[in-house]
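hey team, just a heads up i'm posting the complex here instead of the shared drive bc the drive is being weird again. everything in one block, sequence lines first with there labels, then the predicted structure for the whole assembly after. its three chains so it's a bit long, scroll down
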Amino acid sequence: MPELPEVETTRRGIEPHIRGRKIRQLLVRDHRLRWPVDAGIPQSVSGQSVISVSRRAKYLLLELDQGWLMLHLGMSGSLRILPSGTPPETHDHVDVLFDSNQILRFRDPRRFGSLFYMTTLDHPLLSKLGPEPLSDDFSVDYLMRRARQVRRNIKTFLMDADIVVGVGNIYANEALFYAGIRPLTEAGKVRRARMARLVAAVKMVLAKAIDAGGTSLRDFLREDGKPGYFRHELQVYGREGEACFACEGPLTSLRISNRATVYCRRCQR
DNA sequence: ATCGGGACCTGCTTGC
DNA sequence: TGCAAGCAGGTCCCGA
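-- predicted structure starts here --
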C-alpha cells in the first residue's frame, strides 16, 4: 500500500477532477473490503457534490454537501480518474460517476482497503490517531515525551499510528537511516539530539517522497496511471546486502514485528 | 495498560 | 515448466 506520500499524491491528483462535481451514481461491484461496504452508501451520496478532498493519516476524506466519504487504500489500493464507460477490470470494486462524465475508480486486489460514508468526522478509526508527521505538532518535545512512556524499539514506535500517523515500513526504514539510529534501539533511550534528527528525517523523507509523486514498487499508480519516482531515492529499503550509499559497507537486514527492516551497521548506531 | 502476533486477501517472485 | 512457499506498501483486534 500506499504510505502517506502515496495517499497525498493520490489526493492531489484526484481533487482537481472531482472538487465541485456532483455525484451522479456510486457503484459497488464488490462490497467485501476490510469492512463490508454499507449497502446504503449509493443512495446516501447520490446527488451530493464534492466540496473538498482532504487527508487524515492515510484516510482520504471526500467532503460532500452533507457528509464525508472516507476511503482507505489498504495495502494495494489505488484510485484512477477515467472517462465514463471505461470497462472495469478485475479488482475494480467501486466507481463514483460524476456529472462531468468522469469516473473515480477504486481498485484494490487485496481488499484491505475500506470505504465509509458518515455525517460527522467523529469516527472511531480517526479518534485515537497521533499527529500528522508534517505538522508542527510532530516535534522533538512531543516524541521525547511519548518515547519515555514506552518500552519498545524505535522502529515499531515510529510506525505506531497512535504515536504519529503515516509512517509505514518503507519510510520508517529510510528515516532511521537518515537519522543514524539503529531500528532496534529502545525508543526511550534515544537522546534528544538524535530524536531531533529523527523528527527532521521523517519530515524530510515524507516531503521528498510527496514531491516525487510517491514510491511505486508494484501496485501503486497515481490517479493518471503513472508511477511515482521516489523508488530511485530509497537509501536502504529493498537494498539488503547492497552497499550503503554513505559508507559503502553492506546493508544488514532483519525482521522486526514481521516487517522487513534494512539498515547500515556502520552509519546507524 | 502495553505489546506482539495473528488475521484479513490476492498476486508476484523464488526455489525446488 | 509446474507447483508451493514466501513475501508484499496496513492496521485492527485479541490474548498474554
